[in-house]
């Protein structure tokens, strides 16, 4: 397995991994599908802050970070997204991506990393806890998808 920054040529594969999660799960509250064009722009803007894991040319997953909130007072707090292909889960791919992502965030001067995890995603909560994140807030019924309200769990890790 190798970890590397995403490139424009990866956009189709990332969209193919991400869109079924958007369409069919409560892991994310968004209903807006990712486009290759939008993803390529994100890759260019984020550079080494958008990492891919691949094996023999197959995408295993990705992790990226971005500003937690706008404004200079929040500049050293980041939020991230991480997503793995089903066949990559339980193989250490997520931990490797998270370790590399946090290292990149530290190198860019970040103080803490936030995770916004759906309350309906116990595997995501357990993964983040195992990676050193701790729950700092539970926001009841702030997400709405599939005709129901869902909780958002905020988790934080100091870098």
UniProtKB/TrEMBL annotation:
Q: Tell me the SUPFAM superfamilies matching this sequence.
A: Acyl-CoA N-acyltransferases (Nat) (SSF55729)
Record flagged with keyword DNA-binding = no
Organism, as annotated: Salipiger marinus
Name all N-acetyltransferase domain ranges: 1-159
Keyword Acyltransferase listed? The answer is yes
Residues of the signal peptide? none
Which terms are listed as keywords in the entry? Acyltransferase, Transferase
PANTHER family, per the entry: N-ACETYLTRANSFERASE, UPF0039 PROTEIN C11D3.02C
* Pfam families in alphabetical order: Acetyltransf_1 (PF00583)
Q: What is this protein called?
A: Phosphinothricin acetyltransferase
Its Gene Ontology molecular function terms?
acyltransferase activity, transferring groups other than amino-acyl groups
């Amino acid at each position: 397995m190798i970890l590397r920054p995403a490139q424009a040529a990866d956009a189709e594969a990332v969209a193919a991994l991400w869109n079924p999660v958007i369409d069919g799960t409560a892991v994310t509250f968004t209903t807006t599908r990712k486009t290759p064009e939008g993803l390529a722009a994100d890759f260019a803007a984020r550079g080494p802050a958008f990492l891919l894991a691949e094996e023999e040319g197959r995408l295993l997953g990705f992790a990226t970070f971005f500003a937690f909130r706008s404004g200079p007072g929040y500049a050293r707090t980041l939020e991230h997204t991480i997503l793995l292909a089903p066949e990559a889960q339980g193989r250490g791919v997520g931990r490797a991506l998270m370790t590399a992502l946090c290292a990149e965030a530290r190198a860019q001067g970040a103080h803490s990393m936030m995770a916004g995890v759906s309350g309906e995603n116990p595997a995501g909560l357990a993964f983040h806890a195992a990676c050193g994140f701790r729950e700092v807030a539970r926001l009841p019924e702030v997400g709405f998808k599939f005709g129901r309200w869902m909780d958002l769990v905020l988790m934080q890790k100091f870098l």
